[in-house]
Amino acid sequence: MKTVQSVANGRFSVEMEVVGSGEPLLFLHGAGGLTGIDPFLEELGRDFKVYAPHLPGYGESTGGEHIDDILDAVLFYHQLMDELKIDSAHWVGHSMGGMLAAEAAAVDNSRVKKLVLVSAAGFWLDENPIPDFFAAQLDELAPMLFHDPNSPIAKAFTAIPDDFKALEMMYVERVKRLAMASKFLWPIPDRGLKKRAYRIQAPTLLLWGESDRLVPPVYAGEFKRHIRNSREQLLKAAGHMPMYEQQEAFCSAVRGFLKG
Amino acid sequence: MKFTWFHLMPYRFLPEDFKDKYRSVWVDIPRNLYDPKVGHRLYNDYLDQLEFADRMGYDGLGVNEHHQNAYGMMPSPNIMAATLARRTRNANLVVLGNSIALYNPPVRVAEEFAMLDVISGGRLVAGFPVGTSMDTNFCYGEVPATLREKYYEAHDLIIKSWTEEEMFAWNGKYTKLRYVNLWPRPIQKPHPPIWIPGGGSVETYDFCADHDYQYSFLSYFGYIAGQKVADGYWEVMAKKGKEDNPYAMGFAQCVAVSETDEQAEKDYAPHMDYFYNRCLHVYNGFADAPGYRTVKTIKAGLLGQVGKDAALRREGLTWGDLVEQGYVIAGSPKTVRERLREALKSLRCGHLMLLMQLGSMPPELVRKSTDLFAREVMPYLRDLWTGYEDRWSPKRLPESEIAVPAPVQFELEIKTNGHARKGAESASEARGAAK
C-alpha cells in the first residue's frame, strides 16, 4: 500500500510502500530507486511489515534540499522511524541503500535488529574500481546491472520509451533521482564508512549476486573485514539487482537470515 | 559594437580516425595523443595570434577554462591572460572565465583576477562560468546537485572580497574563512566588469539580470540556433524591467573571412570539419551529469552543446549547410558584413566573441582571416548600437599612468647577433620533427 507521510513538521514528505505484517523491516532502495513494480516487497511482506520509503528526490518524496550528506540522510531515516513509532527494525539496504543502512547502524546500533546489505556501496578498492554508473548510457546499463543482460527483466529495466513525453519524463525522473544519489556516490562512492563500520554490532548478512559487475562481490569481502558479526552469501545467476533477477532466492536468503 | 577575438586553443593534430577510435575528446581522451613539444609550438602560435588581434584593433582578447580537453587547452586561462597583460597594450583581457566553484577557497579567483587587473592597468573582464558538466563534475569531481549552490556562494564571497572595505569573516556552507582580506585589490572600482558565460541554463538569465552582469552565450551552433536563447534572455530582461541595452549580451560565433565566398570554402571547410567532428566529439555520458542542469532548464527544452543530440543535429552537414544554417559566418568581407549585421541585430548583441581559429586551422589562415576581418568587416559594423552606453567594458587607467614593459631582451640579442631562432618555425614542423 502506498502512503504519503509528512515528516519533521513538513520538512520532508515521504512516499512509502507499506506491505504485510510482522516484525518491522525497513527497505532502503538503491540509486535507481524503486520501479513501481517491486514484487519482492510483497514477498517479504508475508513474514514482515515492510516499510519501503522513497528517499527525497525519489518518487513523490520531497525535502531533498535538507539532505546534503550521509549524516543528514541517516538522521532522516531515524526521524522517520521515530514518527512511525518503530524503536528498532530489520534494515535491508540495496546498493546506495546498503551504504546508508550501514551508516545508520554505525551511528545508532539500537535502531537495528539485523542488517542485510545487498550489493552495497560505501567502499572503494583501487584494484577493483566501481564503474561510472552516472556516465553510463542506457544500452550500457543492462550488462552492468544484470547477470543476463538479455533477459526480459533486464530489457524491461533499460527499455527506451517510444513516445517523446514518456522519454522526457523518464529523463527528468532519472535526473531527480541521481541528483540526490550523487550527494553520496559522486564521484567516488566512499564517504568514510571505513572509519565508522567498526561500530556496527547487528548481525549482518552480506548478500551479493555472484556476477555483480557494478559492485563486484569482492566488496562483500571488504564489508566482512569491517563488520564483526557478518557473513557473506552469494546468489547464483544474479548481478547487481538480485531482488529482481532472482527474487525467490533473494527473499528466501533474507527471510532465512532474519528469522534464523 | 565591440569585438572580442576569442581563442579556444585546440590541439590541431588529432588523428583522422579519432571519432571512430575514441569515444570522447574530453574527460577520458588518451594521454598519448598529446605531444608536449607540439603543445609548446601551439601555445606560442596561439598567443601570437591573440597578440596580433590586439595590434589589429580588436576590443578584447578572449580566453576560457577547460580541463582534460583536446579542443580547449587552457586549464588555467589566467596564465594566458597574464602573458597577454605584458605583451599587449590595447585590448581588454576577457577571461571567460574561471569556474569559481572549483577553487578552494574561491578567494583564489578574486586574488588572481585582482592581479590581472593590476598588471594590465584595469583591462580585465572577469568571467564567472558555472563550468561545463565535463569540467566540473567529471574532471573536477564536483557533486552535480550542489554545484550551482556552491557557485552562487563562491560568487557572493568573491564580490564581497572585492567591495568590502574592512576585513571580514565568511561562514558559508562550502567555504569558511576567519580572515578575508584581499591583497592586492583590483584597479577597477567597484570591481572589474562581470560577464557570465552561459550554455543555455535558464537560471543564468535571471542571475545576470538581477546583478546587472553581461550574459555571454557561448554557442558553437551559430546565431540562428542561438536565437532561442537570446530571445529567452531578452524576455527575462524585459520581465524584470531591465534596459534592453545590447551591450548586456555577448555571443560567440565562428567567423571566417577570405577573398571570396568560394575561396572561404577552400580555405576553411576542412578545418570546420575538424572542429565539429573531432573537437566536439564528446561522449554522451559526459555531456550532462544528472543534476547538473536543473529540471527547469531541461523542461525549457534547451539542448546541450555537446553529446548525442548535438552530434545528431550536425550529422552530415556540408560546408554549404554550415554556412546556410549560420553555424559559421564565412565568405568574402561583403558577405560576412551582411550576415553579421543581420545576426547581431536579431540577437541584439553588442559584444561579439569571434571564434576565428577553428579546429585545425593553421597560423597563416588565422592571420589572413583576422586581418581581413579587422580591415574590411569591423569598421563597417562599428555603427551598430551607437545610442547605447557600454557599461560592461573595463575602465582602465589613463594612458599617462600605464606602465610600459621593458623590451624583450632576447629578441634584441637575436636580432643583433644575427642568429635565427633555432628549432621548428611552426607547430606542423614541430610535429614532423617529433615523429
Structural notes for this entry:
The complex is a heterodimer of chains A (260) and B (435). With 260 residues, chain A is an alpha/beta fold. Chain A has one domain: 3-Layer(aba) Sandwich (Rossmann fold). In chain A, 38% of the residues lie in helices and 20% in strands. In chain A, strands 1-2-4-3-5-6-7-8 form an eight-stranded mixed sheet, sandwiched between helices. In chain A, helix 1 (39-45) links the parallel strand 3 and strand 4. Chain B is of the alpha/beta class. Chain B has one domain (2-408): TIM Barrel (Alpha-Beta Barrel), CATH 3.20.20. Chain B contains 17 helices and eleven strands. Chain B has helices spanning 18-21, 36-55, 77-87, 107-119, 133-139, 144-163, 202-211, 222-239, 261-279, 295-299, 308-314, 319-324, 333-347, 363-376, 378-381, 409-417, 427-434, and strands at residues 2-6, 60-63, 92-95, 124-127, 168-171, 176-180, 194-198, 214-217, 249-257, 328-331, 351-355. In chain B, the strands form two sheets. Chain B has an eight-stranded parallel barrel with strand order 1-2-3-4-7-8-9-11, surrounded by eight helices. In chain B, helix 8 runs parallel beside helix 13. Chain B starts with a strand and ends with a helix. The mean pLDDT of chain B is 93. The chains are: A alpha/beta (260), B alpha/beta (435). At the A-B interface, helix 6 of A face helix 6 and helix 10 of B.
